[in-house]
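Handout, section B. The chain below has 111 residues.
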Amino acid sequence: MPDYDPGQLAGVGRFVRDPQQPDQAEVAITVCDALQGMGHGRTIGLALADVAKARGLRRFTASLLGADVAAGRLLHAISRRVQTDYSGGIADLVVELETREHPISSEALAA
């Protein structure tokens, strides 16, 4: 494993509900460089999707640089239904949240 201090933050994710479209939220996920490519972003993304679904959200949105292939793959790991529109080097994604067989509960995340 690359050099990583376990006392440092490994990754974080959040979503912010859109006040004009309350069934969708903008999502953002980041994982420290040393831990990228190990599935941590996917785990955070799936947990966020589960919590969002439980709160009545139906989709996530995200804007990313068109060259950010890893971020695009991460969002496709959250759902098989992703719509992407490109304009001026920016990819705008809409991720339809799917119901999973074994969702991660809010209580488990708070523990």
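Note. Residues 11-110 form a domain with the Aminopeptidase fold (CATH 3.40.630.30). Compare this with the example in section A.
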